[in-house]
Each structure stands twice: as C-alpha cells, then as structure tokens.
C-alpha cells in the first residue's frame, strides 16, 4: 500500500467523511507523503480547514482572484468575496478568474460561478457592494480570517481598523509595477502593530496602488495573491514561520525579498483609540 493510500485511509478515520473531505484528503495525503512527521498537525489542521474555516476576501481583482482560487482548491468551508466592480478588458491580464466572455459582468457573480466549478462544496457568499464601514462591520463578524486585496488606502485603513476591533487575523497585500508588499496582523495579540504603523494616512496616495495608473506585470499580482492565501493556510494549519508584525517586501524584477519588522507607534495608538 502506498503512502498516499495510507494517508487517505487515515484521514477517513479522523474526519468522518466531512462535507469537503475529497479536497482535504488530497492536500493531507500529499503532505503526508512528503513529510510524515507533520501528519498529526496536518490532519488536525485540515479538519479545521474543512469544517470551521471562514475566510473573507475584500477585492476580487489581481490579488483576490488567485487567493480565492487556491483557498477554494484547498477545501475551505466558507468563503466570502466582496467587490462592487465589473470585469473590464484591462483586468484580464492580471485577474485570473476572468476572461473576455465575462466583460461588463459583476466580478463576484462570475467569481462565484467559477469557484463553485472548482469546488462545489465550498460555501461562497458574495457581497456585491462598495465597501463602507457600516456594511463591512455587519459581515466581518461572520469570518475568522480576512484577506485585503483592495487597491485604495481608504479601504485598507477601514479593513485594518475593524479587523483590529474584532480581533481578526488579517493578511494585507499591495502591488505596483514589479513590487509587492505582504503584511500579516494577528490582532488577537494586543501587541501586534497595524497597517497604520507603516503607512501614514495623511501623506499616502492611492496612485501607488492603482494598477491602471502605475502599471503591473500580471504574474506579480498572481504571485502576491497566492502568497496571501498561503499565509492564511499556514495560520490554519499551524505550520511554518509566522509573518505577524512584519512586512515582506518583494521585488520580482530583481528577485529580492526583504522582511522588515513593524513597531507600534503612539500615532497609531491614538488613531485606534479614536475609532
């Protein structure tokens, strides 16, 4: 009997054929075959992944599409997707869930159809509206993990502040040209810094996040979006090195990766106390 068969049989015994089990079996079996010493944690993590994980993605563009794709393929139980926009021709080179047949159609409606074809057992909730504080505060309570794939700082600061308020695990991505930034904030830990400790709201402009204005190489969006999903999966599975409290700065033109520690600032604390 192969290691793959052993892993699948073991998973059936542990998970009791959970609703999303076929996807869970595939992931766990692969991991078991390559690293048997991780089996216990992987089995537990996959069980949680399948039955309990609730992930919200805000922004179904260049970052949100690959993140949603790989999370759905991983067999998560519940996925929320937020975007008010429609598909345009300029989106297609970097937003991997869409093609020319989708032009002028709602991004979240198209994304849900395609994600359901990938894995019909993942429950997908779509929110076809522009993000504001009232709407976001209503839905954030229903999710444990938040992925910020938006392209403007008003939305990013709002997502940051409410994720902090409700003590969520937030992964934030930003892309421009050949560069990407990835932040991870575990707000259950009161000592975790926030996005406001890196970006200064008073001087920052949305132009640096605007792919239409700045330009973006398509694979850059795919790489960073995939890494956002990877950070969430690592947290769920309780494996790997945690990026919490750091920013990962990636230059894909020159293939350089730099991790910078974030520190809480008094200015950030004042902002939080006023929310």
Structural features, described:
By secondary structure, the chain is an alpha/beta fold. It folds into 2 domains: 1-48, no CATH class; 53-273, 3-Layer(aba) Sandwich (Rossmann fold), CATH 3.40.50.720. It is built from 10 helices and 8 strands. It has helices at residues 3-15, 21-34, 39-51, 64-73, 107-118, 133-140, 153-165, 211-214, 218-237, 266-273, and strands at 54-58, 78-82, 123-127, 145-148, 169-176, 179-186, 246-251, 256-261. It has an 8-stranded mixed beta sheet, with helices on both faces. Helix 4 packs parallel to helix 5. The chain is globular, with a radius of gyration of 19 Å. The N and C termini lie far apart (58 Å). Mean pLDDT is 82; it is low at 1-8.
Short description:
With 275 residues, the chain is of the alpha/beta class.
Number of self-contained structural domains: 2
> What structural class do you assign from the helix and strand content?
alpha/beta
CATH topology of the largest domain: Rossmann fold
Q: What can be said about the biggest beta sheet?
A: 8 strands, mixed
Basic shape: globular
How large is the radius of gyration? 19 Å
Determine the fraction of residues in helical runs and give it as a percent range: 40-55%
């Amino acid at each position: 009997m192969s290691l793959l068969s052993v892993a699948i049989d073991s998973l059936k015994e542990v998970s009791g054929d959970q609703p999303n089990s076929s996807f869970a079996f595939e992931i766990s079996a692969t991991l078991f075959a390559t690293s048997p010493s991780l089996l216990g944690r992987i089995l537990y993590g996959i069980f949680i992944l399948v039955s309990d994980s609730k992930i919200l993605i805000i922004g179904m563009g260049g970052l949100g599409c690959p993140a949603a794709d790989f999370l759905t393929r991983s067999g998560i139980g519940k996925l929320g997707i937020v975007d008010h926009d429609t598909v345009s021709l300029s989106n297609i080179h970097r937003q991997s869930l869409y093609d020319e047949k989708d032009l002028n159609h709602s991004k979240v409606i198209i994304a849900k159809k395609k994600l359901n074809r990938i894995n019909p057992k993942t429950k997908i909730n779509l929110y076809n509206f522009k993000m504001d504080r009232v709407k976001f505060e209503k839905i954030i309570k229903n999710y444990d993990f938040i992925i910020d794939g938006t392209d403007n700082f008003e939305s990013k600061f709002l997502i940051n502040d409410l994720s902090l308020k409700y003590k969520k695990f937030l992964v934030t991505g930003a892309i421009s040209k050949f560069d990407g930034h990835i932040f991870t904030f575990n707000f259950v830990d009161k000592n975790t810094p926030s996005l406001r400790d890196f970006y200064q709201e008073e001087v920052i402009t949305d132009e640096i996040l605007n792919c239409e204005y700045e330009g973006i190489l398509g694979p850059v969006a795919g790489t960073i979006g995939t890494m956002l999903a990877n950070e969430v999966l690592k947290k769920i599975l309780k494996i790997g090195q945690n990026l919490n409290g750091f920013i990962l700065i990636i230059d894909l033109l020159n293939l350089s990766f730099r991790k910078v520690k974030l520190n809480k600032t008094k200015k950030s604390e004042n902002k939080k106390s006023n929310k």
